[in-house]
């Protein structure tokens, strides 16, 4: 029986994760401290619903603050 592939939900990331990880190291480091703290708190409380909500919020933040989006915003172009 093969293991199911678990990938980072970060925008255009797709890095393979361990089963306990929710974001890859690269995406995790891009997040602001308050969002990392919210994810860690939900995980520590074993609150699956809150954890999935916080991860979705983190992915949304990453999509809005991706380097390509920020560059397009500065140049006045449409975001990718």
Task: Provide an overview of this structure.
The mean pLDDT is 86. The longest helix has 17 residues, at 48-64. The protein has four helices and no strands. Helix 2 (33-44) runs antiparallel to helix 3 (48-64). The radius of gyration is 14 Å and the shape is globular. With 80 residues, it is mostly helical.
> N-to-C terminal Cα separation, in Å?
39 Å
Structural class call reads mainly alpha
Mean pLDDT: 86
Number of H/I helices? 4
Secondary-structure blueprint of this entry?
Layout (H helix, E strand, L loop, with lengths): L24 H6 L2 H12 L3 H17 L2 H9 L5
Keywords for this entry:
single chain; 80 residues; mainly alpha; 0% strand; globular
Short description:
With 80 residues, the protein is mainly alpha-helical. It has helices at 25-30, 33-44, 48-64, 67-75.
